[in-house]
Protein backbone atom coordinates (compact mmCIF):
# COMPACT_ATOMS: atom_id res chain seq x y z
CA UNK A 1 0.00 0.00 0.00
CA UNK A 2 2.87 2.36 0.88
CA UNK A 3 4.45 1.81 -2.54
CA UNK A 4 1.13 2.56 -4.22
CA UNK A 5 0.77 5.79 -2.27
CA UNK A 6 4.33 6.84 -3.09
CA UNK A 7 3.84 5.99 -6.76
CA UNK A 8 0.62 7.96 -6.83
CA UNK A 9 2.32 10.94 -5.18
CA UNK A 10 5.17 10.82 -7.70
CA UNK A 11 2.73 10.69 -10.59
CA UNK A 12 0.81 13.60 -9.09
CA UNK A 13 4.00 15.64 -8.76
CA UNK A 14 4.94 14.86 -12.36
CA UNK A 15 1.47 15.84 -13.54
CA UNK A 16 1.57 19.10 -11.61
CA UNK A 17 5.03 19.82 -12.95
CA UNK A 18 3.84 19.18 -16.50
CA UNK A 19 0.77 21.41 -16.05
CA UNK A 20 2.77 24.32 -14.65
CA UNK A 21 5.52 23.90 -17.23
CA UNK A 22 2.97 24.11 -20.04
CA UNK A 23 1.32 27.10 -18.35
CA UNK A 24 4.63 28.95 -18.37
CA UNK A 25 5.81 27.94 -21.85
CA UNK A 26 2.82 27.01 -24.00
CA UNK A 27 1.77 30.50 -25.10
CA UNK A 28 4.42 32.42 -27.00
CA UNK A 29 4.49 36.17 -27.31
CA UNK A 30 3.53 36.56 -30.98
CA UNK A 31 2.82 40.28 -30.81
CA UNK A 32 4.26 42.42 -33.60
CA UNK A 33 7.43 44.12 -32.37
CA UNK A 34 7.30 47.85 -33.07
CA UNK A 35 10.50 49.31 -34.52
CA UNK A 36 9.04 52.46 -36.07
CA UNK A 37 5.92 53.89 -34.42
CA UNK A 38 3.48 55.71 -36.68
CA UNK A 39 3.69 59.46 -36.23
CA UNK A 40 0.11 60.74 -35.89
CA UNK A 41 -1.13 62.93 -38.71
CA UNK A 42 -2.11 66.48 -37.77
CA UNK A 43 -5.87 66.69 -37.28
CA UNK A 44 -7.93 69.86 -36.91
CA UNK A 45 -9.95 68.63 -33.94
CA UNK A 46 -12.63 71.32 -34.00
CA UNK A 47 -13.21 70.91 -37.74
CA UNK A 48 -13.50 67.12 -37.67
CA UNK A 49 -15.81 67.26 -34.66
CA UNK A 50 -18.04 69.77 -36.40
CA UNK A 51 -18.32 67.52 -39.45
CA UNK A 52 -18.97 64.41 -37.36
CA UNK A 53 -21.72 66.02 -35.29
CA UNK A 54 -23.49 67.10 -38.48
CA UNK A 55 -23.49 63.47 -39.63
CA UNK A 56 -25.01 62.31 -36.32
CA UNK A 57 -27.82 64.85 -36.69
CA UNK A 58 -29.13 63.22 -39.89
CA UNK A 59 -31.55 60.43 -38.80
CA UNK A 60 -30.63 57.71 -41.32
CA UNK A 61 -32.67 55.05 -39.55
CA UNK A 62 -33.13 51.46 -40.71
CA UNK A 63 -36.45 49.82 -39.87
CA UNK A 64 -37.42 46.19 -40.27
CA UNK A 65 -40.58 47.50 -41.91
CA UNK A 66 -39.34 49.15 -45.10
CA UNK A 67 -42.54 51.20 -45.29
CA UNK A 68 -40.98 53.41 -42.61
CA UNK A 69 -37.86 54.06 -44.70
CA UNK A 70 -37.13 57.80 -44.89
CA UNK A 71 -35.41 58.35 -48.20
CA UNK A 72 -34.99 62.07 -47.54
CA UNK A 73 -32.61 61.37 -44.65
CA UNK A 74 -30.33 59.22 -46.81
CA UNK A 75 -30.36 61.72 -49.65
CA UNK A 76 -29.52 64.43 -47.12
CA UNK A 77 -26.59 62.30 -45.94
CA UNK A 78 -25.31 62.04 -49.52
CA UNK A 79 -25.49 65.84 -49.80
CA UNK A 80 -23.67 66.15 -46.47
CA UNK A 81 -20.78 64.00 -47.73
CA UNK A 82 -20.49 65.98 -50.98
CA UNK A 83 -20.46 69.28 -49.14
CA UNK A 84 -17.98 68.32 -46.44
CA UNK A 85 -15.51 66.19 -48.43
CA UNK A 86 -15.07 68.03 -51.74
CA UNK A 87 -11.70 66.56 -52.74
CA UNK A 88 -12.98 63.01 -52.41
CA UNK A 89 -15.87 63.85 -54.71
CA UNK A 90 -13.59 65.60 -57.19
CA UNK A 91 -10.91 62.91 -57.47
CA UNK A 92 -12.65 59.61 -56.66
CA UNK A 93 -15.29 57.99 -58.81
CA UNK A 94 -18.66 57.68 -57.08
CA UNK A 95 -21.30 55.08 -57.90
CA UNK A 96 -24.65 55.41 -56.18
CA UNK A 97 -25.92 51.85 -55.81
CA UNK A 98 -29.64 51.12 -55.50
CA UNK A 99 -30.31 54.87 -54.96
CA UNK A 100 -28.84 55.14 -51.44
CA UNK A 101 -25.65 53.08 -50.99
CA UNK A 102 -22.31 54.59 -52.02
CA UNK A 103 -19.21 53.16 -53.67
CA UNK A 104 -16.11 55.37 -53.98
CA UNK A 105 -13.12 54.38 -56.10
CA UNK A 106 -9.77 56.19 -55.93
CA UNK A 107 -7.75 54.77 -58.80
CA UNK A 108 -4.23 53.51 -58.25
CA UNK A 109 -1.36 53.72 -60.73
CA UNK A 110 -0.26 50.06 -60.47
CA UNK A 111 -2.84 47.63 -61.92
CA UNK A 112 -0.79 44.65 -60.68
CA UNK A 113 -1.81 45.50 -57.11
CA UNK A 114 -5.22 44.22 -56.09
CA UNK A 115 -7.34 47.03 -54.62
CA UNK A 116 -8.28 47.37 -50.96
CA UNK A 117 -11.85 47.88 -49.75
CA UNK A 118 -12.79 49.85 -46.64
CA UNK A 119 -16.36 49.69 -45.40
CA UNK A 120 -18.89 51.31 -43.09
CA UNK A 121 -22.64 51.78 -43.03
CA UNK A 122 -24.66 54.97 -42.97
CA UNK A 123 -27.80 53.63 -41.29
CA UNK A 124 -28.50 53.39 -37.57
CA UNK A 125 -31.04 51.54 -35.46
CA UNK A 126 -34.17 53.31 -34.21
CA UNK A 127 -34.44 54.69 -30.71
CA UNK A 128 -36.75 52.51 -28.62
CA UNK A 129 -39.72 54.60 -27.49
CA UNK A 130 -39.77 52.78 -24.15
CA UNK A 131 -36.24 53.99 -23.33
CA UNK A 132 -36.20 57.33 -25.17
CA UNK A 133 -36.59 59.24 -21.90
CA UNK A 134 -33.45 57.59 -20.52
CA UNK A 135 -31.17 59.34 -22.99
CA UNK A 136 -29.13 62.02 -21.24
CA UNK A 137 -28.77 63.87 -24.54
CA UNK A 138 -31.10 63.73 -27.53
CA UNK A 139 -30.12 60.71 -29.65
CA UNK A 140 -29.66 62.73 -32.83
CA UNK A 141 -28.21 65.85 -31.23
CA UNK A 142 -24.56 65.11 -31.96
CA UNK A 143 -23.69 67.18 -28.90
CA UNK A 144 -20.09 67.32 -27.68
CA UNK A 145 -20.00 67.63 -23.89
CA UNK A 146 -16.94 67.21 -21.66
CA UNK A 147 -14.96 65.32 -24.28
CA UNK A 148 -17.83 63.01 -25.29
CA UNK A 149 -19.79 62.92 -28.55
CA UNK A 150 -23.42 61.84 -28.12
CA UNK A 151 -25.85 60.22 -30.51
CA UNK A 152 -26.90 57.31 -32.68
CA UNK A 153 -24.07 56.31 -35.00
CA UNK A 154 -21.21 57.53 -32.83
CA UNK A 155 -20.23 53.87 -32.36
CA UNK A 156 -22.39 52.02 -34.85
CA UNK A 157 -21.36 53.04 -37.46
CA UNK A 158 -21.15 56.57 -38.79
CA UNK A 159 -17.80 56.76 -37.03
CA UNK A 160 -16.32 54.47 -39.72
CA UNK A 161 -17.98 56.30 -42.61
CA UNK A 162 -16.95 59.80 -41.54
CA UNK A 163 -13.49 58.86 -40.25
CA UNK A 164 -12.75 57.12 -43.55
CA UNK A 165 -13.87 60.18 -45.49
CA UNK A 166 -11.71 62.41 -43.29
CA UNK A 167 -8.76 60.11 -44.00
CA UNK A 168 -9.11 60.20 -47.78
CA UNK A 169 -9.73 63.97 -47.79
CA UNK A 170 -6.48 64.51 -45.84
CA UNK A 171 -4.54 62.21 -48.16
CA UNK A 172 -5.78 64.07 -51.21
CA UNK A 173 -4.93 67.41 -49.61
CA UNK A 174 -1.33 66.17 -49.46
CA UNK A 175 -1.44 65.19 -53.15
CA UNK A 176 -0.63 61.56 -52.32
CA UNK A 177 -1.10 59.52 -55.48
CA UNK A 178 -2.03 55.91 -54.71
CA UNK A 179 -0.33 52.94 -56.33
CA UNK A 180 -3.05 50.58 -55.12
CA UNK A 181 -6.66 51.42 -55.89
CA UNK A 182 -8.75 52.21 -52.82
CA UNK A 183 -12.48 51.55 -52.61
CA UNK A 184 -14.96 52.73 -49.99
CA UNK A 185 -18.32 50.95 -49.68
CA UNK A 186 -21.03 52.51 -47.52
CA UNK A 187 -24.26 50.54 -47.25
CA UNK A 188 -27.61 52.03 -46.29
CA UNK A 189 -29.35 49.03 -44.68
CA UNK A 190 -26.77 47.09 -42.66
CA UNK A 191 -29.07 47.15 -39.65
CA UNK A 192 -31.71 45.39 -41.75
CA UNK A 193 -29.36 42.75 -43.18
CA UNK A 194 -27.60 44.68 -45.95
CA UNK A 195 -29.41 42.95 -48.81
CA UNK A 196 -30.39 46.20 -50.53
CA UNK A 197 -27.12 47.96 -49.83
CA UNK A 198 -23.89 46.02 -49.31
CA UNK A 199 -25.10 43.01 -51.26
CA UNK A 200 -26.01 45.21 -54.23
CA UNK A 201 -22.58 46.85 -54.05
CA UNK A 202 -20.92 43.42 -54.04
CA UNK A 203 -23.07 42.33 -57.00
CA UNK A 204 -22.07 45.47 -58.91
CA UNK A 205 -18.36 44.90 -58.22
CA UNK A 206 -18.68 41.27 -59.28
CA UNK A 207 -19.96 42.38 -62.71
CA UNK A 208 -16.75 44.43 -63.01
CA UNK A 209 -14.62 41.39 -62.01
CA UNK A 210 -13.10 43.32 -59.11
CA UNK A 211 -11.17 41.24 -56.56
CA UNK A 212 -9.75 42.75 -53.39
CA UNK A 213 -6.45 42.18 -51.60
CA UNK A 214 -8.40 42.61 -48.37
CA UNK A 215 -11.66 43.99 -47.01
CA UNK A 216 -11.95 45.91 -43.73
CA UNK A 217 -15.31 46.56 -42.07
CA UNK A 218 -16.56 47.31 -38.55
CA UNK A 219 -16.90 44.49 -36.01
CA UNK A 220 -13.75 44.30 -33.89
CA UNK A 221 -12.76 46.88 -31.27
CA UNK A 222 -10.23 47.55 -28.54
CA UNK A 223 -11.56 45.64 -25.54
CA UNK A 224 -10.93 46.38 -21.90
CA UNK A 225 -11.83 43.87 -19.15
CA UNK A 226 -13.78 41.76 -21.63
CA UNK A 227 -11.47 38.77 -21.94
CA UNK A 228 -10.83 36.49 -18.94
CA UNK A 229 -7.57 36.69 -17.05
CA UNK A 230 -6.13 39.74 -18.75
CA UNK A 231 -5.98 43.35 -17.57
CA UNK A 232 -4.31 44.82 -20.64
CA UNK A 233 -6.43 46.23 -23.48
CA UNK A 234 -6.78 43.83 -26.41
CA UNK A 235 -7.59 44.85 -29.98
CA UNK A 236 -9.63 42.00 -31.45
CA UNK A 237 -9.77 41.62 -35.23
CA UNK A 238 -12.76 39.72 -36.57
CA UNK A 239 -11.63 36.95 -38.92
CA UNK A 240 -15.09 35.40 -39.30
CA UNK A 241 -18.66 36.00 -38.25
CA UNK A 242 -21.59 33.90 -37.26
CA UNK A 243 -24.51 33.31 -39.57
CA UNK A 244 -28.14 33.22 -38.56
CA UNK A 245 -31.42 31.50 -39.27
CA UNK A 246 -34.93 31.80 -37.86
CA UNK A 247 -36.97 28.63 -37.61
CA UNK A 248 -40.72 29.05 -37.45
CA UNK A 249 -42.38 26.19 -35.54
CA UNK A 250 -46.09 25.82 -36.35
CA UNK A 251 -48.70 23.45 -34.95
CA UNK A 252 -52.21 23.31 -36.41
CA UNK A 253 -55.16 21.69 -34.60
CA UNK A 254 -58.96 21.85 -34.44
CA UNK A 255 -60.22 24.82 -32.47
CA UNK A 256 -63.09 24.96 -30.07
CA UNK A 257 -64.02 26.02 -26.56
CA UNK A 258 -61.49 25.63 -23.78
CA UNK A 259 -64.10 23.89 -21.61
CA UNK A 260 -63.68 20.74 -23.73
CA UNK A 261 -59.99 20.56 -24.58
CA UNK A 262 -58.18 17.65 -26.20
CA UNK A 263 -55.35 15.91 -24.35
CA UNK A 264 -52.84 18.22 -26.02
CA UNK A 265 -53.72 21.58 -27.53
CA UNK A 266 -51.73 23.12 -30.38
CA UNK A 267 -50.06 25.37 -27.81
CA UNK A 268 -49.25 22.39 -25.60
CA UNK A 269 -47.68 20.46 -28.48
CA UNK A 270 -45.68 23.56 -29.40
CA UNK A 271 -44.56 23.99 -25.79
CA UNK A 272 -43.25 20.42 -25.75
CA UNK A 273 -41.33 21.13 -28.95
CA UNK A 274 -39.77 24.26 -27.46
CA UNK A 275 -38.64 22.33 -24.39
CA UNK A 276 -36.97 19.76 -26.66
CA UNK A 277 -35.26 22.53 -28.64
CA UNK A 278 -33.78 24.11 -25.51
CA UNK A 279 -32.84 20.70 -24.09
CA UNK A 280 -30.73 19.88 -27.16
CA UNK A 281 -28.07 22.60 -27.50
CA UNK A 282 -25.44 22.44 -30.20
CA UNK A 283 -22.00 20.95 -29.62
CA UNK A 284 -19.24 23.25 -28.44
CA UNK A 285 -16.24 24.21 -30.55
CA UNK A 286 -13.23 25.83 -28.87
CA UNK A 287 -11.17 26.63 -31.96
CA UNK A 288 -11.88 30.39 -32.07
CA UNK A 289 -11.22 30.85 -28.36
CA UNK A 290 -8.02 28.85 -28.74
CA UNK A 291 -6.96 31.04 -31.66
CA UNK A 292 -7.51 34.17 -29.58
CA UNK A 293 -5.57 32.75 -26.63
CA UNK A 294 -2.73 31.62 -28.87
CA UNK A 295 -2.06 35.34 -29.41
CA UNK A 296 -2.64 36.73 -25.91
CA UNK A 297 -2.33 33.72 -23.58
CA UNK A 298 1.17 34.72 -22.53
CA UNK A 299 -0.25 37.88 -20.93
CA UNK A 300 -3.06 36.23 -18.95
CA UNK A 301 -2.93 35.40 -15.25
CA UNK A 302 -1.92 31.93 -14.08
CA UNK A 303 -5.48 30.96 -13.13
CA UNK A 304 -6.51 31.44 -16.76
CA UNK A 305 -3.30 30.32 -18.43
CA UNK A 306 -3.12 27.00 -16.57
CA UNK A 307 -6.37 25.48 -17.89
CA UNK A 308 -6.13 27.13 -21.33
CA UNK A 309 -2.65 25.68 -21.91
CA UNK A 310 -3.82 22.24 -20.79
CA UNK A 311 -7.13 21.78 -22.56
CA UNK A 312 -6.24 18.11 -23.08
CA UNK A 313 -7.10 17.77 -19.38
CA UNK A 314 -9.27 20.78 -18.51
CA UNK A 315 -11.38 21.13 -21.66
CA UNK A 316 -14.62 19.88 -20.01
CA UNK A 317 -14.15 22.26 -17.08
CA UNK A 318 -13.31 25.23 -19.33
CA UNK A 319 -16.31 24.56 -21.56
CA UNK A 320 -18.57 24.23 -18.53
CA UNK A 321 -17.33 27.55 -17.17
CA UNK A 322 -17.76 29.32 -20.51
CA UNK A 323 -21.27 27.96 -20.98
CA UNK A 324 -22.36 29.63 -17.74
CA UNK A 325 -21.99 33.07 -19.32
CA UNK A 326 -24.19 33.95 -22.32
CA UNK A 327 -21.44 36.06 -23.92
CA UNK A 328 -18.72 33.40 -23.69
CA UNK A 329 -21.14 30.58 -24.51
CA UNK A 330 -22.01 32.35 -27.76
CA UNK A 331 -18.35 32.26 -28.79
CA UNK A 332 -18.08 28.45 -28.65
CA UNK A 333 -21.28 27.16 -30.18
CA UNK A 334 -24.32 27.86 -32.34
CA UNK A 335 -26.81 29.54 -30.02
CA UNK A 336 -30.52 28.92 -29.60
CA UNK A 337 -32.97 31.66 -28.61
CA UNK A 338 -36.74 31.26 -28.53
CA UNK A 339 -37.89 34.80 -29.30
CA UNK A 340 -41.54 34.82 -30.40
CA UNK A 341 -44.70 32.95 -29.37
CA UNK A 342 -48.28 33.11 -30.63
CA UNK A 343 -51.39 31.11 -29.71
CA UNK A 344 -55.06 31.85 -29.30
CA UNK A 345 -56.47 35.37 -29.32
CA UNK A 346 -58.59 34.72 -26.21
CA UNK A 347 -58.10 32.79 -22.99
CA UNK A 348 -61.10 30.47 -23.50
CA UNK A 349 -60.52 29.68 -27.19
CA UNK A 350 -58.47 26.68 -28.27
CA UNK A 351 -55.83 27.81 -30.76
CA UNK A 352 -56.20 26.49 -34.29
CA UNK A 353 -52.60 27.49 -34.83
CA UNK A 354 -49.76 27.91 -32.37
CA UNK A 355 -46.48 29.36 -33.55
CA UNK A 356 -43.00 30.06 -32.23
CA UNK A 357 -39.89 31.59 -33.75
CA UNK A 358 -36.46 30.38 -32.68
CA UNK A 359 -33.39 32.39 -33.66
CA UNK A 360 -30.06 30.62 -34.14
CA UNK A 361 -26.65 32.30 -34.49
CA UNK A 362 -24.61 29.85 -36.51
CA UNK A 363 -21.00 29.06 -35.71
CA UNK A 364 -18.74 28.55 -38.75
CA UNK A 365 -18.80 24.82 -39.39
CA UNK A 366 -22.56 24.60 -38.92
CA UNK A 367 -24.96 25.55 -41.71
CA UNK A 368 -28.60 26.56 -42.11
CA UNK A 369 -29.36 23.00 -43.25
CA UNK A 370 -27.47 21.34 -40.39
CA UNK A 371 -29.23 23.57 -37.85
CA UNK A 372 -32.61 22.74 -39.36
CA UNK A 373 -31.83 19.02 -39.33
CA UNK A 374 -30.61 19.17 -35.71
CA UNK A 375 -33.83 20.81 -34.57
CA UNK A 376 -36.01 18.46 -36.63
CA UNK A 377 -34.34 15.47 -34.94
CA UNK A 378 -34.61 17.08 -31.51
CA UNK A 379 -38.35 17.77 -31.83
CA UNK A 380 -39.09 14.46 -33.58
CA UNK A 381 -42.80 15.26 -33.95
CA UNK A 382 -44.53 15.33 -37.32
CA UNK A 383 -47.26 17.55 -35.87
CA UNK A 384 -44.72 20.40 -35.72
CA UNK A 385 -43.99 22.07 -39.05
CA UNK A 386 -40.51 23.61 -39.25
CA UNK A 387 -39.80 26.44 -41.70
CA UNK A 388 -36.56 28.40 -42.10
CA UNK A 389 -36.63 32.11 -42.96
CA UNK A 390 -34.28 35.12 -42.85
CA UNK A 391 -31.17 33.02 -43.37
CA UNK A 392 -27.52 33.88 -43.70
CA UNK A 393 -24.75 31.27 -43.64
CA UNK A 394 -21.79 31.66 -41.32
CA UNK A 395 -18.82 33.23 -43.03
CA UNK A 396 -15.60 31.55 -44.11
CA UNK A 397 -12.59 32.09 -41.83
CA UNK A 398 -9.93 34.50 -43.08
CA UNK A 399 -6.22 33.93 -42.57
CA UNK A 400 -4.14 35.66 -39.91
CA UNK A 401 -1.12 35.37 -42.21
CA UNK A 402 -2.40 37.50 -45.10
CA UNK A 403 -1.14 40.95 -46.09
CA UNK A 404 -4.42 42.48 -44.94
CA UNK A 405 -4.41 40.98 -41.45
CA UNK A 406 -0.73 41.78 -40.94
CA UNK A 407 -1.29 45.38 -42.04
CA UNK A 408 -4.18 45.83 -39.59
CA UNK A 409 -2.22 44.19 -36.77
CA UNK A 410 0.92 46.22 -37.38
CA UNK A 411 -0.97 49.49 -37.74
CA UNK A 412 -2.72 48.97 -34.41
CA UNK A 413 0.55 48.19 -32.65
CA UNK A 414 2.48 51.01 -34.33
CA UNK A 415 -0.19 53.50 -33.25
CA UNK A 416 -0.27 52.15 -29.68
CA UNK A 417 2.20 49.41 -28.74
CA UNK A 418 0.48 49.02 -25.38
CA UNK A 419 -2.35 47.26 -27.19
CA UNK A 420 -2.28 43.51 -27.65
CA UNK A 421 -3.79 42.18 -30.88
CA UNK A 422 -5.68 38.94 -31.41
CA UNK A 423 -8.13 37.40 -33.89
CA UNK A 424 -11.66 36.54 -32.82
CA UNK A 425 -15.09 35.43 -33.99
CA UNK A 426 -17.67 38.19 -34.50
CA UNK A 427 -20.94 37.08 -32.94
CA UNK A 428 -23.14 39.59 -34.74
CA UNK A 429 -23.52 40.22 -38.45
CA UNK A 430 -21.79 42.82 -40.64
CA UNK A 431 -21.99 43.99 -44.24
CA UNK A 432 -18.59 42.37 -44.78
CA UNK A 433 -20.27 38.98 -45.09
CA UNK A 434 -21.50 39.93 -48.55
CA UNK A 435 -17.97 40.32 -49.95
CA UNK A 436 -16.47 36.85 -49.66
CA UNK A 437 -17.00 36.29 -53.35
CA UNK A 438 -14.61 39.21 -53.96
CA UNK A 439 -11.87 38.40 -51.43
CA UNK A 440 -10.70 35.60 -49.16
CA UNK A 441 -9.30 38.15 -46.71
CA UNK A 442 -12.22 39.83 -44.97
CA UNK A 443 -11.62 41.49 -41.58
CA UNK A 444 -13.52 43.54 -39.04
CA UNK A 445 -12.00 46.18 -36.78
CA UNK A 446 -12.35 49.82 -35.80
CA UNK A 447 -10.10 51.71 -33.38
CA UNK A 448 -12.66 52.25 -30.63
CA UNK A 449 -12.26 51.26 -26.97
CA UNK A 450 -15.12 49.42 -25.29
CA UNK A 451 -15.59 47.75 -21.92
CA UNK A 452 -18.49 45.68 -20.55
CA UNK A 453 -20.39 48.86 -19.60
CA UNK A 454 -19.90 50.83 -22.82
CA UNK A 455 -20.52 47.72 -24.94
CA UNK A 456 -24.16 47.92 -23.88
CA UNK A 457 -24.50 51.21 -25.76
CA UNK A 458 -24.42 49.32 -29.06
CA UNK A 459 -28.06 49.59 -30.13
CA UNK A 460 -28.79 50.78 -26.60
CA UNK A 461 -29.36 53.92 -24.58
CA UNK A 462 -26.90 56.84 -24.54
CA UNK A 463 -24.73 55.76 -27.47
CA UNK A 464 -21.60 57.89 -27.28
CA UNK A 465 -17.89 57.98 -27.97
CA UNK A 466 -15.05 60.00 -26.53
CA UNK A 467 -13.46 62.68 -28.65
CA UNK A 468 -10.12 60.94 -28.06
CA UNK A 469 -11.46 57.70 -29.54
CA UNK A 470 -12.88 59.46 -32.57
CA UNK A 471 -9.56 61.17 -33.30
CA UNK A 472 -7.79 57.82 -32.85
CA UNK A 473 -10.22 56.22 -35.33
CA UNK A 474 -9.23 58.85 -37.89
CA UNK A 475 -5.54 58.19 -37.19
CA UNK A 476 -6.07 54.46 -37.68
CA UNK A 477 -7.98 54.75 -40.95
CA UNK A 478 -5.56 57.36 -42.28
CA UNK A 479 -2.60 55.08 -41.55
CA UNK A 480 -4.38 52.07 -43.05
CA UNK A 481 -5.45 53.83 -46.24
CA UNK A 482 -2.10 55.56 -46.70
CA UNK A 483 -0.12 52.34 -46.33
CA UNK A 484 -2.47 50.25 -48.45
CA UNK A 485 -2.48 52.92 -51.18
CA UNK A 486 1.31 52.87 -51.37
CA UNK A 487 1.32 49.12 -51.96
From TrEMBL:
Matches recorded under CDD domains: M20_yscS
Domain Peptidase M20 dimerisation: 239-382
E.C. numbers: 3.4.17.-
GO molecular function, one term: metal ion binding
Keyword annotations of the record: Carboxypeptidase, Hydrolase, Metal-binding, Protease, Zinc
Pfam family of the protein (one): Peptidase_M20
Gene Ontology BP terms: proteolysis
InterPro entries: Bact_exopeptidase_dim_dom, Pept_M20A, Peptidase_M20, Peptidase_M20_dimer
Origin: domain of life: Bacteria
Enzyme class: hydrolase
Family: Belongs to the peptidase M20A family.
Name of the protein in its database record: Carboxypeptidase PM20D1
Organism name: Paraglaciecola mesophila KMM 241
Amino acid sequence: MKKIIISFAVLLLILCGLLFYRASSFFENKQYVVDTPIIPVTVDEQAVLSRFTKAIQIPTISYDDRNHFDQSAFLAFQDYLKENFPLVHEQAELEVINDYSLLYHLKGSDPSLQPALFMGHMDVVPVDEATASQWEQAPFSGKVIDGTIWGRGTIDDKISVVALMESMEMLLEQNIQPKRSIYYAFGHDEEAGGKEGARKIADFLATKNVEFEFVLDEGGVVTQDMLPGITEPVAVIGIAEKGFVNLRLTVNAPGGHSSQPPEHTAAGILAQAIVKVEANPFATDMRFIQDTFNHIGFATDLATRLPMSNLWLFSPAVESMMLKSPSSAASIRTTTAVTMLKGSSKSNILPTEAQAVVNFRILPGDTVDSVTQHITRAIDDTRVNIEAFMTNEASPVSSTESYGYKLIEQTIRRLDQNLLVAPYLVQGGTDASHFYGLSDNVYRFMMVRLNPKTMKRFHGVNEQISVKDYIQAIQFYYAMVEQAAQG
